[in-house]
Amino acid sequence: MRYENFLNPISTAELERRWSAIRRIMDARGIDALVMQNSNDHLGGYVRWFTDIPATNGSPRTVLFSRDGSMTLIEQGPRHAEQNIKVGDPVFRGISRRMFSPSYCSVHYTRHYDAECTIREIRRREYRVIGLVATAAMYFDFCQQLKDGLASTVEFVDATDFVDDVKVVKSPEEINCIRKTAKMQDEVFRRVVRQVRPGMRDFEVTALAQYVGHCLESEQGTFNGVSAPIGEPSSLQLHRHEQGRVIQPGDHFNLLIENNGPGGFYTEIARTLVFGRATNELQDAFERCKEAQQATLSQLRPGAACSDIFAAHNAFMHSQGLPEEKRLFAHGQGYDLVERPLIRDDETMMVREGMNFAIHPGFSTDRLFMTVCDNFIVTGSGQAERLHSTPQQIFEMC
Q: For 6-10, 12-16, 146-150, which range has the lowest pLDDT when averaged over its residues?
């Protein structure tokens, strides 16, 4: 694999910033190494954050991150094969060793292969205290075998919170990538609006958005939307098999674009299209969503408690005669489509300068579903900055 094969790699200086910040905490806590495993790049950003290499398509990629040395990468490949990486390798930066394992979650007897590689490497390096990062993202059998196999010699601690604490505040380089993602999504939306028309099936609209995104250097993401006649809800369906309806004149369509952009960072945007004229009912609902988003923005400032923002949002919804929020209407983003902090009552993290938030308030009735979604960077001035430039309006496709 060659360096020029990679789309928009993050700089080595940025990787070194991350490694240094984490190693300082590991040193203070006496942690010898971290273990993380991801298997997709929608909700698998830890591996990419440490290595700039994503995990994809259900195949696990495991990272052993040392406090005093380099990383070991364990990934799909020939059984028992290993590769030593030269210092300064432009692709496997910070990685000194690759171990391979032909493991597949669909083939049950391979369930311990990755753990066996990891155990072998931990024993070789004589680690005694291991920090586990985001065990919810690991395959169960991997994590269980790792703990059972090293129970007599290794102490396991949860390192997720302190990794999150560093990961969620974006550096200037990361913010620049996030800005490019939002700009890319604005262009995707612009091109979709220019080409979409009645007679297309819903999946053709989302496939067009995906194609344009890929041409603009996006790697992965979800593309959601379903059409419906006026007077019926047009929900956001993630799966292509639920997007088979043919768009008719007069229909409306909620389109949500959630793909990553240059460098692998996520933002998301949602707007409503109407293949005719928008009714007053739709326009009023959209204005309510914009007001709800603005109400959240007014509180999205450094030092604010996420639980307080969530309570204020529900108070606003109640004041408007709208249903209180039970889902996730605002959250952090980075290499993960959803990452901390969540604007919810169970979130303990505070808002900090440099966080990237997607804010998408919405509500459903028996006649409509409405939402609006944009991304915002928290600034030191206390006024969050909207990254998307797409007008906040219903788009009438007359």
A: 6-10
Upstream peptide bond of 341 is cis (omega within 30 degrees of 0): yes
How would you classify residue 188: left for phi > 0, otherwise alpha for psi between -120 and 50, otherwise beta?
Answer: alpha
* 209 and 255 Cβ atoms separated by less than 8 Å: yes
What CA–CA distance (Å, rounded) separates 219 from 349? 29
| E runs forming strands in the chain | 33-38, 61-66, 71-76, 82-84, 95-101, 129-133, 155-158, 221-224, 227-228, 252-259, 269-274, 330-332, 339-342, 356-359, 362-364, 369-371, 374-377, 385-386, 395-396
More confident residue, 237 or 165: 165
% of the chain residues with pLDDT over 70? 98
Task: Tell how strand 221-224 and strand 362-364 pair up.
Answer: unpaired
What is the residue-wise DSSP string for 106-157? Answer: TSGGGTTHHHHHHHHHHHHHT--EEEEE-GGGS-HHHHHHHHHHTTTT-EEE
What pLDDT is attached to residue 57? 86
Verdict on whether the full-model pTM lies above 0.90? yes
Q: Are 233 and 23 in contact (CB under 8 A)?
A: no
Single-letter amino acid code for the residue at 104: Y
What structural domains does the chain harbor?
3-167 (3.40.350.10), 172-396 (3.90.230.10)
Q: How many angstroms separate the CA atoms of 320 and 372, rounded?
A: 17
How much is the average pLDDT of 42-56?
Answer: 93
